[in-house]
Amino acid sequence: MINLVVALPAEARPLIAHYRLTDKTTMGAFRLYRRADMSLIISGPGKIAAAAATALLAGQNTSGEQAVWLNIGIAGHATHATGVSLLAHRITDHATGKSWYPPRLFDLETASASLITVDVAENSYHQDAAYDMEASGYYAVAGRFSTAELVQCFKVVSDNREQSTATVTAERCAQLLTETLHEIDQLLGALAALAQDCNSWHAAPAGLERLSSQWHFTVSQQHQLAELARRWKVLMPDRPLWLGELDSKKNAAGVLLCLQQHLDSLAPGLPQAAHVPRV
Amino acid sequence: MFDTLYIEKQIAGHARTQDICARFPNATRVECDRYGEVFNPKSQNFRLQKRRPSLILAHKHHGRVLETPQGYGLGGNRNYYFSHMLNCLYDCRYCFLQGMYRSAHYVLFVNYEDFETDMEMLLAQADNEPCWFFSGYDCDSLALEPVSAFMQHFLPFFSKRPLAHIELRTKSTQIRSLLKMEPIPNVVIAFSFTPQEIYRALEHKVPTLERRLQAMLQLQQAGWQLGLRFDPLIYQQGYQAQYRRLFQQLFSQLDSEQLHSVSLGTFRLPRSYFRNIVQLYPDEPLFAGTYSVDNGMISYPQSLEQEMTAFCTRELLQHIPESVLFPCTLAA
After folding, report:
1. A171 near A177, Cβ under 8 Å?
2. CB of B237 within 8 Å of any CB in chain A?
């Protein structure tokens, strides 16, 4: 799943059109646009709004899988020309001084920059950094739902010392975003590939659902079952999670014991060389 | 090699920082207050980051040289370990670092002189008793030498202090700087090995056994003291034949009479690290087997541990005298 968080409708419009996010709903103060594998929420300006919108969007993801998060929007910068796109390598909340460092694990041409989130629009551009009003709120929340490598901030410079924020109209904003859609495509592609890898490592083996529906497992037993299922998938990747003896088990405890004994009866430690994948 | 360098503000102007930055002119430089801001946050994925780790240049403030756990050592009474670096260039699946750290970035502490001051203090307290300093537990001692110049800096310190012994533990073949120096009798370069089959399955990015053996031969010929480390011993069906082959390969070429020490220890991990690693690598065969939990440590069932240790000890003693064999008897 890909989650996009944007502050303004003008920033959202090109993205909604480009990604065909046709399913529109309103949740409280927020507008949400979706398709099967992507959601976009319009937070409104400010870091608190961004944090609230991010949390709301995170609450929609019940799959437990790692999702990609991308905050997209415009930003000011002292020296960069307007239209330059930047990926944040450090996000600093100006009010608290707290910083986050999104790791960059992909090859893209997009340059990176420090990004400072301010509470009121910045027109002095004191530091060699981009300035926005949402990133710190968004990042602090999104980072609680996905691993940091999948949570990124993409900004397009809309104003600088030569061109003040007064020159940034809704049309200009939409135009800036439209011009960087190909970069956003590449970025989302790279992030989605990382997320897919991450999620595939944790995919449950075939047969787990059958067990879960046939017996009642307490929460603690569900954890034990998940661990046994993990070992099963590694040791017997071609066999669904099932043993003939399970038919006679009256309860979940009996099922767990049976699976445990079966797995423990296999070789301890590293299985036979023939089973060890060459990476 | 590195696309991003994170640099602590405090050491941005340090000569070693400048030198290292100059080696990576195209890397993005990101300033931070403390390395922990980048390295320690919870929500990071070590496995993903291992694909493209960055380098963090930092200052080590406290706890630079620490006592080793009981059971570690090569016969000395005063044993310490230190880490000028956190994390390793290699990617061995059994390594505890994956479970200990949240980030796979490399942290390099550039204030080498402070480490030396601490060692000097410990030597002064030792009352003319030898002290052992172990390097290579939280990183590989040699692997990043071209960047860190770690040995180039530290070995002259040891050459002037005969009571200060150092073990440099490694799987690397970065021995150029050693070959340029005169051998130092109180410096031991200890190479770790597992059998070929285990190497292929678990020791990703590590130089081949043959290349490491060649590096050892060159060092031995140059007069350096060498150690062999078979730690961890990894179980596999048929492990006896695998380890026997490994020992034969090594001892048929190395001069075993010139070896400083050989140590061995079976695979074990603190339980919390094991859990973290399984979360990262749920699909790894090494973690799908049967393990025992004893005193917070995950290890093979005791009978298997004893069997493996006894077998490997017996085999090793066919090649080396007992006086240079040091089994690791680490208590939990």
Report:
1. no
2. yes
Give me the half-sphere count of Cα atoms (radius 13 Å) on the Cβ side of residue B70. 2
Query: Distance between CA atoms of A149 and A68, rounded to whole angstroms?
Result: 9
- Give me the CATH number covering residue B233: 3.80.30.30
Predicted confidence (pLDDT) at residue A157 exceeds the cutoff of 80: yes
Which chain B residues are Cβ-neighbours of A197 within 8 angstroms? Answer: 48
Instruction: Report chain A residues whose CB lies below 8 A from the CB of B38.
Output: 101
Structure tokens of B6? 């994170």
Q: Which of residues 164-223 of B touch A (CB under 8 A)?
A: 197-198, 200-202, 204
Q: How confident is the model at residue B69 (pLDDT cuts 50, 70, 90)?
A: confident
Q: Is A276 within 8 Å of B200 when comparing Cβ atoms?
A: yes
What part of A 185-204 touches B (C-beta under 8 Å)?
Answer: 194, 197-198, 201-202
Residue B189 resides in a domain: yes
Question: Which H/E stretch holds residue B58?
Answer: strand B55-58
The whole-angstrom distance between A270's CA and the closest CA on chain B is 4
Question: Which range marks the domain in which residue B281 is found?
Answer: 60-83+111-327
Residues in CB range of B51: below 8 A, 6 or more apart: A105
Dist. CA A116–CA A129, nearest whole Å: 7
Is residue B332 scored above 50 in pLDDT?
Answer: no
Mutate to test the interface with B, among A230, A270, A272, A276 (most CBs of B within 10 A): A270
Count of domains forming chain B:
1
Strand duo B297-299 + B292-294: pairing = antiparallel
Cβ distance A147 to B43 less than 8 Å, yes or no, reads yes
Residue B12 lies in a domain: no
A233 has a pLDDT exceeding 80: yes
| Residue B133 lies inside a defined structural domain of this protein | yes
Structure tokens at B282: 């749920």
Q: What is the DSSP letter of B320?
A: S
**This model's pTM is above 0.80:** yes
What is d(CA B193, CA B170) in angstroms, rounded to the nearest whole number?
10
The three-point CA angle B235-B316-B202 to 5° equals: 30
Strands A68-77 and A2-6 turn out to be parallel
Candidates B4, B103, B285; nearest CB to A275: B285
Residue of B14, B22, B16 lying closest to B2 (CA atoms): B22
Q: What share of chain A is helix, strand, coil (3-state, %, to 5)?
A: 40, 20, 35
**Beta-carbon separation of A267 and B45 below 8 A:** no
* Average pLDDT score, chain A: 92
Q: Which of B282, B285, B292, B328 is nearest to B72 (CA)?
A: B328
Mean pLDDT for all residues in chain B: 94
CA–CA dist A27, A33 (Å, integer) = 11
Q: Identify whether B36 is part of a domain.
A: no
- What is the average per-residue pLDDT within A151-165? 94
Locus of tokens 């986050």 = A100
* Contact of B31 with B12, CB cutoff 8 Å: yes
What value of ipTM does the predicted structure carry?
0.91
A101 touching B, CB under 8 A?
yes
For residue B222, the one-letter residue type is A
A277: its two tokens: 């994948």
Please list the alpha-helical segments (H only) found in A44-180: 47-60, 135-142, 170-179
